[in-house]
Amino acid sequence: MEKQVLTIVCKINPTPEQVTKIEATLQSFAGACNYINEVVDPRLTHNVTIQNLVYRDVREQFGLASNLVVRAVNRVSSNRKTAKRMNKPVRKFLPTSADYDARIFSLREKDWSVSLTLVGGRERFLVDVGNYQKGKLSGFTPTSATLVKHQNGTYSVNIKVHIDAPSIQKSQGIIGVDLGRRDVAVTSEGESFSGQQITKIRDRYSRARTSLQKKASEGTRSTRRRARQILQRLSGRERRFQTWVNHNVSKHIIGKAKKSGCSIAIEDLTGIRERTNEQPRSKTERRRSNSWAFFQLRTFLDYKALGAGVEVIKVNPAYTSQTCHKCLHIHPVKGKSYRSGKTFNCQHCNWKGDADLNGANVIKLLGASVNSPGGSYLSCELRRKVEYFQPSL
Ligand SMILES: [Zn+2]
Fold it and tell me: Fewest CB atoms within 10 A around its CB: which of 227, 230, 346, 349?
């Protein structure tokens, strides 16, 4: 199995007090390295040998945490080895970086923050990471990092991620996931993520927002100001709640897929708003599927899947909610559907059940047909039907 080491650069924005601690740490770390390099016989390169000679001395002189001393010894040891290979002297150590291991550094996925042991105590920093970095870091417990000061005066924590094996697992099957209709998510395995409770809270926020927006535009000046303030607070609380929900739902689904060796299939909704061939949805349903929360859940699924090595298959969303997953029939009359609110009642094969569960299963079938072109009869048949029913795409 091959090991791949990736370095993920995560910018941090320390407060002035934290900058002082960071600078003290960088100074001490470089100072310790230079000191070690000076006092230890230059012929010695092995880290344990060097450590035995200077550990206590360095710890007393430089005020560094135990593991930072160990890291400094390792830095000198590896620079000496490189210098020896290149037949060059070891260069002076500059106060621009310090090495970290699992005892003095940790990453917290919940709020994307890192904590570092510095001279003067442990500090936590929010890291400035995008979806790429999140995808690489999600699900890992990184064990080493480097605190770096850049030439322009900014700081970053460069986290090392060891990836072994091919990054995407071989698929044992497919879990279809239907997102954002009545429930937050429903899987083809029959799991549904407590739509009612969450939707109720979301709708409550939505109603409150509507009434406040009315006040914000029509009331007296002070009412308008007050309404705007409440709206702002409401949106913050709603966002945090939804982010928490999405984090847990996506974590659960990807965890399941990872454990059972499955890929997941979801609808490809790029440009869904422009599409007109879906049956018109109700206003409430449109609000739900166009909301940022819905897109956040998809993003979370994507990056957690990437981190866990789970494949995500995007399928064409046309008619996923209209097709019967048992017999692949779509209501023959244009504008009519076997789906009615929460239930799906196929008048061709008489399958009756939860409409979202049906949707998730159609997504699963479509995912299988994407995954194995020319595969089973069923997937061919479904593809043929879907192609037949969507000539405009
Ligand atoms: Zn049917």
Answer: 349
| Cα dihedral value 55, 59, 61, 62, nearest 10 | 120
Q: How far, in Å, is the centroid of ligand 1 from the Cα of 257?
A: 27
Is residue 90 domain-resident? yes
Question: Are residues 271 and 332 located together in one domain of the fold?
Answer: yes
Q: Output the CA 338–ligand 1 centroid distance in Å.
A: 9
Number of domains forming the structure of the chain? 2
3 state SS of 220: coil
Q: How far is the CA of 319 from the centre of ligand 1 (A)?
A: 14
**b/e sequence 78-117, b meaning 16+ C-beta within 10 Å:** ebbeebeeeeeebeebebebbbbeeebbbbebeebebebb
Interval 85-118: pLDDT, tens? 878 889 999 999 999 999 999 999 989 999 999 9
CA 158–ligand 1 middle distance (angstroms) = 54
Within a domain: 218? no
> 352: CA distance to ligand 1 center in Å?
8
pLDDT level of residue 224 (50, 70, 90 thresholds): confident
Among the listed residues 321, 367, 327, the one whose alpha carbon sits nearest the alpha carbon of residue 344? 321
Tell me, yes or no, whether 151 and 51 share the same domain.
yes
For residue 212, the CA-to-ligand 1 centroid distance in Å is 45
Whether residue 265 sits in one domain with residue 127 = no
180 in the same domain as 59: no
Query: What DSSP character marks residue 192?
Result: B
Residue 393: how many CB atoms within 10 A of its CB? 11
320 C-alpha to ligand 1 centroid (Å): 13
Domain of residue 265, CATH code: 3.30.420
Most confident of the following: 41-50, 209-218, 373-382 = 41-50
User: Rounded mean pLDDT of 122-131?
Assistant: 91
Whether pLDDT at 233 is above 80: no
- Which domain range does residue 260 map to? 173-193+242-389
Å from CA of 349 to ligand 1 middle: 4
Q: 263 C-alpha to center of ligand 1: Å?
A: 25
CA 323 to ligand 1 center in whole angstroms = 8
